[in-house]
Amino acid sequence: TTIIPKLLVNIQTQDQSISYTGCLSQVCFVLIFGGLESCLLAVMAYDRYVAIGHPLRYTVIMKPFLCVLLVFLSLLISTMNALLHSLMLLNLTFCTDQNILHFFCELVQVIKLACSDTFINTLLIYTVTSVFAGVPLSGIIFSYIEIVSSILKISSVQGQKKAFSTCGSHLTVVCLFYGTAFGVYMNSAVSE
């Protein structure tokens, strides 16, 4: 969703470059939306856990205020992460032209173009990525372990199917999101 506008402009103008400012804003929005999606998938897994594991207390536990708070915290955390990386990019100096000959700016690729010391930027990328991928994924895995445990306690097969169908679509989205991210990571790790 973040790169589509620039992609459409590139198709129309036949120009594959992006300015430094455009690149910086694209990196910022990619980080906001990626982090937000990761956090929201964990929040949704918790919601499914409460719905299946504690169905009678669902409305007491998942009050509208808690839902809004969890979404707001997800947005706040992902925005702070994006701003941190964007501000750290602003501190770098670049030896080359301020235009990047590609329509999509990836944080790691922009850092590789810098002339100044990028150790802190690289350290931040690995640390924050580990936290942003690890903590929500751990929450999702824990929620689904509890969900499977609750489903296995249901005596009827129809009840088990209904409980699993409640979280089947979410599990599909989680697999697509993390599977794609893992595939891209492995592909870039192998190509380097």
UniProtKB/TrEMBL annotation:
Specify the superkingdom.
Eukaryota
Its localization reads: Cell membrane; Membrane
Topology in the lipid bilayer: Multi-pass membrane protein
Q: Name one GO cellular component term.
A: plasma membrane
Q: Signal peptide location in the record?
A: none
Where do transmembrane segments lie in this chain?
A: 24-44, 65-84, 123-145, 166-186
Coiled-coil residue windows: none
Protein keywords: Cell membrane, G-protein coupled receptor, Membrane, Olfaction, Receptor, Sensory transduction, Transducer, Transmembrane, Transmembrane helix
* GO molecular function terms noted in the UniProt entry: G protein-coupled receptor activity; olfactory receptor activity
The G-protein coupled receptors family 1 profile domain sits at: 1-192
Keyword Flavoprotein among record annotations: no
Which family, according to the similarity comment? Belongs to the G-protein coupled receptor 1 family.
The name this protein goes by in its record: Olfactory receptor
Q: Lineage of this protein's species?
A: Eukaryota, Metazoa, Chordata, Craniata, Vertebrata
Query: Shown portion of the whole protein?
Result: 75 to 266 of 310
